[in-house]
């Protein structure tokens, strides 16, 4: 297993940076040591061939062949979540772990269809997550937003029904944005044009994002922009294939929510060093660094920052630039952004030119 290490002082600087996460699937933060107790609490029988112990499961998580191989485990994991308190426990565990890594603001995904398909009401899911968000703000000073994702492998009629059932949650601002995840290549953005238009009709403030260019090529990114009217792209690694698209991303200030450890684990790239961060910086493209499904990919937000540092060896000013653009690309209000910028200034001052 690859170990990413940087100097203790650099790690301390990276930990102190006020980090915002834009690409985190709450269901992907289900650690094996919570999965089995929840299965027991809810009397869920896991499939016969599913690993029987935390250790066996952790071992299996070290070798995913591709996105689909991972998703097969991810959806089985979802099955242990039933009650409001399960969703609360899951999200609260994520916030606590990430607080210890210097997380200050999180815009987090969830997949209602992986729960409603098992008879769990969307309100139960959202209510559990919301309670954790409130506690995270009060006790950990982490602000957050919920992004509802549609599962692109499910029938479009099911996606439309899910959207309809979430209408009030969007209208009342309990849900902040719409996203799109699951198997990318067979289910391109154009299938979801109507769903995205509907979400925007719920409320003009609803934000739109979509996974694109993780396993799909750069045309998936282009089509998500043109047909879904997203203002953010989740992953978008493959945008680097097309110089014209790169120029457009910079011009239109589209943020890419990059996930270094995920990309290695799902074999999008062989090593973090292959990711086009320097190309994006040179082209003036905004990106953030995120953990995606930390329980499955072996690292939370700071672990991703450290992995990038071990391969790119950025100086403090480059990190300042990356964190600044991450704050700017967040969907929190101007007051919160200002607080985050002040935290960043304080960290830069604390470390001076020492690194
Ligand atoms: O990394 C991902 N990609 C696509 N779908 C997902 N659903 C959870 N995680 C992912
Ligand atoms: Zn993702």
Instruction: Give start-end ranges of low-pLDDT stretches.
Output: none
* Small molecules held by this entry: hypoxanthine, zinc ion
| CATH homologous superfamily (4th level) name | Metal-dependent hydrolases
Please tell me how large the radius of gyration is. 19 Å
Spatially, the strands of the biggest sheet line up as 1-2-3-4-5-6-7-8
The shape is globular
Distance between the termini: 28 Å
Q: Which second-level CATH architecture applies?
A: Alpha-Beta Barrel
Strand segment count: 8
Question: Order of SSEs, N→C?
Answer: HEHHHHEHHEHHEHEHEHEHHEHHHH
Q: Counting H and I runs of at least 4 residues, what is the number of helices?
A: 18
The biggest beta sheet reads: 8 strands, parallel
Assigned CATH class: Alpha Beta
* CATH fold type: TIM Barrel
Approximate helicity band? 40-55%
Number of domains: 1
Structural class estimated from helices and strands: alpha/beta
- Beta-strand share of residues: 5-15%
Q: Taking all residues together, what is the mean pLDDT?
A: 97
Protein model, in words:
The protein is of the alpha/beta class and 355 residues long. The chain has one domain: Metal-dependent hydrolases (TIM Barrel, Alpha-Beta Barrel), CATH 3.20.20.140. The protein is 51% helix and 12% strand. The protein is built from 18 helices and eight strands. An eight-stranded parallel β-sheet has the order 1-2-3-4-5-6-7-8. α17 packs antiparallel against α18. The two termini are 28 Å apart. The model has no long low-confidence stretch (mean pLDDT 97). The protein binds hypoxanthine and zinc ion (ZN). Zinc ion binds next to loops. This is Adenine deaminase. Its cofactor is Zn(2+). Catalyzes the hydrolytic deamination of adenine to hypoxanthine. Plays an important role in the purine salvage pathway and in nitrogen catabolism. It is found in: Cytoplasm; Nucleus. Keywords: Cytoplasm, Hydrolase, Metal-binding, Nucleotide metabolism, Nucleus, Zinc.
């Amino acid at each position: 297993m690859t170990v990413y290490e940087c100097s203790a002082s650099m790690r301390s600087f990276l930990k102190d940076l006020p980090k915002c996460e834009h690409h985190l699937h709450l269901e992907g933060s289900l650690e094996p040591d919570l999965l089995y107790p929840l299965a027991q609490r809810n009397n869920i029988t896991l499939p016969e061939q599913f690993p029987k112990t935390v250790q066996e499961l952790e071992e299996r998580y070290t070798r995913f062949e591709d996105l689909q191989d991972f998703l097969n485990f991810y959806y089985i994991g979802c099955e242990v979540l039933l009650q409001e308190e399960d969703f609360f426990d899951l999200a609260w565990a994520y916030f606590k772990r990430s607080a210890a890594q210097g997380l200050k603001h999180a815009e987090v995904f969830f997949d209602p269809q992986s729960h409603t398909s098992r008879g769990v009401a969307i309100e139960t899911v959202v209510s559990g997550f919301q309670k954790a968000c409130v506690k995270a703000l009060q006790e950990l000073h982490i602000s957050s937003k919920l992004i509802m994702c549609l599962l692109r492998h499910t029938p479009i009629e099911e996606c439309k029904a899910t959207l309809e059932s979430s209408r009030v949650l969007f209208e009342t601002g309990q849900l902040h944005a719409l996203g799109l995840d699951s198997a990318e290549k067979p289910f391109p953005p154009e299938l979801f044009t109507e769903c995205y238009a509907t979400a925007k009709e719920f409320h003009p403030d609803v934000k739109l994002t979509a996974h694109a260019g993780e396993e799909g090529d750069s045309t998936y990114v282009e089509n998500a922009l043109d047909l879904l009217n997203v203002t953010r792209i989740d992953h978008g690694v493959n945008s680097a294939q097309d110089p014209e698209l790169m120029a457009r991303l910079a011009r239109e200030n589209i943020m890419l929510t990059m996930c270094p450890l995920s990309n290695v684990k799902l074999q999008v790239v062989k090593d973090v060093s292959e990711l086009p961060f320097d190309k994006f910086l040179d082209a003036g493209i905004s990106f953030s660094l995120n953990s995606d499904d930390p329980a499955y990919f072996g690292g939370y937000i700071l672990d991703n920052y450290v992995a990038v540092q071990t391969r790119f060896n950025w100086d403090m000013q480059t990190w300042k630039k990356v964190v600044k653009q991450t704050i700017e690309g967040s969907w929190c209000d101007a007051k919160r952004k200002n607080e985050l910028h002040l935290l960043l200034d304080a960290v830069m001052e604390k470390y001076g030119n020492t690194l």
